[in-house]
Design a protein that fits this description.
Elements lengths: L4 E2 L6 E5 L5 E5 L15 E6 L3 E6 L4 E5 L15 E6 L3 E6 L4 E5 L15 E6 L3 E6 L4 E5 L15 E6 L3 E6 L4 E5 L16 E3 L41 H4 L27 E3 L11
Antiparallel strand pairs: 1-2, 2-3, 4-5, 5-6, 7-8, 8-9, 10-11, 11-12, 13-14, 14-15, 16-17
Length: 288
């Protein structure tokens, strides 16, 4: 039974995690993007790119496989444990335990040019050829291809608790639950229905673990992987489904010993928890 998560089909394949953390991929395997390494072990987060797949092991180690023409599977040897991963068409981004955002792979549109003043981030999303990140303050920053305004964050957006990137459009959830989308809108994928809100499930505040460095990495939110978007691209928000992967808290290295940010409402780690976003998907065919 798949009770963890199933990601939008990325071009022509799908990946899912079952309740035990096993990663299963099926569909087009031209670039071996469905050949899960037999020794991978339990996975706590994953992302499906154009023709490559990335997975975060329980130890925080990032493993990528599939098409590597642009180095999108070349995980930096000094990367260390990561808390979140996002996969674009030909690029990959990961959030380190320190909150630093690291991107590698194709950079034709500047999609891996992390702004030098970005600082620690809480979440990352990868579109077709662009990247979005949520800063510790909740500010949303996007960079890379901006042909359709998918990186033009509204100046009055304010803090957000989650972000998802489609091929050429972006959606963000505010602490109020309001959904804001911008970018390519030919088929109305940015026309959020009037009065629509993403439901945030309340959760009690939990004290910090005595020794958070000894806890297993459990990323709470990472980006939804993009796909090779066609004219039928769309967006989907699934806020009510049970997804056991989102139930976990980040218990190790989210902010290290020196970095103690105030988390935006809606994002969780091992110290502060006030709301919880169940599932947030943006792409051509999102489903659980």
């Amino acid at each position: 039974m798949v009770s963890a998560m199933c990601r939008p089909t990325s071009v022509r394949y799908t990946c899912a995690l079952n309740a035990t953390g096993e990663l299963v991929c099926f569909g087009d395997n031209q670039f071996y993007q469905c050949d899960v390494p037999p020794d991978l072990g339990p996975v706590v987060a994953m992302a499906a790119g154009g023709h490559h797949t990335c997975a975060v092991k329980a130890s925080g180690e990032l493993v990528c496989f599939g098409d590597n023409e642009f180095g999108q599977c070349d995980v930096p040897p000094d990367l260390g444990p990561v808390l979140a991963v996002a996969a674009g068409l030909r690029h990959t981004c990961a959030v380190k335990a320190s909150g630093e955002l690291v991107c590698f792979g194709d950079n034709q549109n500047g999609q891996r040019d992390v702004p030098p003043d970005l600082g620690p981030v809480l979440a990352v999303a990868a579109g077709l050829r662009y990247t979005c990140a949520v800063k510790a303050s909740g500010e949303l920053v996007c960079f890379g291809d901006n042909e359709f305004g998918q990186c033009d964050v509204p100046p009055d957006l304010g803090p957000v608790v989650a972000v998802a990137a489609g091929g050429r459009h972006t959606c963000a959830v505010k602490a109020s639950g309001d959904l804001i989308c911008f970018g390519f809108n030919e088929l109305g994928q940015c026309d959020v229905p009037a009065g629509f809100r993403v439901r945030l499930a309340p959760r009690p505040v939990r004290p910090a673990a005595p020794d958070p460095t000894q806890q297993v990495l459990q990323p709470v939110h990472h980006s939804e992987p993009p796909a090779e978007i066609s004219q039928e691209e769309g967006a989907a928000i699934v806020a009510e489904q049970e997804a056991t992967w989102i139930e976990h808290n980040i218990g190790s290295g989210w902010h290290g010993n020196d970095f103690q940010p105030q988390m935006p409402v809606g994002l969780t780690h091992g110290v502060y928890t006030s709301h919880e976003l169940r599932t947030f998907l943006c792409g051509p065919a999102a489903s659980l």
